[in-house]
Each structure stands twice: as structure tokens, then as C-alpha cells.
Design goal:
Helix content: 55-70%
Structural class: mainly alpha
Distance between the termini: 45 Å
Mean pLDDT: 74
Order of helices and strands: EEHHHH
Radius of gyration: 19 Å
Largest sheet: 2 strands, antiparallel
Shape: elongated
Amino acid sequence: MKRKFRSNKKEHNSNSFYITDLSTTDAEYVGKGIRSHWHIENKLHYTKDVIMREDKESTKNPIAAANLGLFRNFVFNILKEKDKSIKYATEIFENYPIKKIMTTLART
């Protein structure tokens, strides 16, 4: 798949290669599937990075990093289950340390 995109006002070109077990060779169909996958993937990572600041995590201990990842997924799923907005989630993560987040979630 060939892509053109702009980043920092500069045009970039890239080639990506995909392996599939689909029986079709319809490039448009396969391309839609790839774009759909990345739309979902980017939406999840945007939420986890912007709200939970996952990319700024600097924990060096692999066990602690795994536990923080599990905690973020846990919180993310609770907020989704409770139909809380992204704005609500952002306010919780910006204004409260972990202990307060857990207490707040226990009340929602």
C-alpha cells in the first residue's frame, strides 16, 4: 500500500506491505479493511495516550509497567461501561492521583 501524508508541513511517502489469507485480490476491499483496522487502533491509542498519558510513562521496571498498563485498561473499560465521556475521564486523570481515581470509580 502506498501512502502520502503531511507532517509538520512536509509531505511524506511510504510503502507498507501486508500479508493476508483473504481469497480476494480486490485492492479496494483489502485497503478498506486495513484502514478500518488502523482507525480502531488509532482511536484506542489516542484515548489511552491523551487521557492517560501512556506515552509519557517512564517506568523502567517491566513488572510495574505491565501493572500500570493493566490498571489503565481496567479504568478505561470501567469508564466505557459507565458511558462516561472522554471529557469526564480527562478531568479525573488530570486532577486526581491514582488513589483518588480508584475512590472516584468505586462511587460511579
